[in-house]
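Design request, tokens follow.
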């Protein structure tokens, strides 16, 4: 099964989009514990991004340490993974770390370009 189709993943994605980052982190953790390979890296990155946002807006952290850690995992993945546009997510989370009004979401990856 594609990890993004699981109910826990979907619940985490909804919580993430609502700005309930710690709760999203918790929803994804069970999936992460059993995942392997790139799927594990994907989930680890999402958990770290959620933690970065939570620490920034609930604890006032300006270090962005979890964002930097997430980049290490994302750098090993393609710009989109499991149907999620990771390139957009990186940019959206970075922007949200600097603007309290922004709520990043896990957007679907753009469709592949057909050869011309």
């Amino acid at each position: 099964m594609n990890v993004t189709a699981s109910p826990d993943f979907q619940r985490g994605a909804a919580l993430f989009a609502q700005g309930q980052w710690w709760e999203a982190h918790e929803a994804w953790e069970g999936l992460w514990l059993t995942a392997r390979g790139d799927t594990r890296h994907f989930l680890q990155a999402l958990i770290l991004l959620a933690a970065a946002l939570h620490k920034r807006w609930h604890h006032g952290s300006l270090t962005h340490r979890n964002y930097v850690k997430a980049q290490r995992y994302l750098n090993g993945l393609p710009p989109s993974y499991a149907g999620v546009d990771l390139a957009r997510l990186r940019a959206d989370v970075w922007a949200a770390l600097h603007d309290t009004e922004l709520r990043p979401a896990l957007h679907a990856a753009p469709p592949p370009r057909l050869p011309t």
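Comment from the thread starter after seeing the answer: thanks! The chain has one domain: 3-96.
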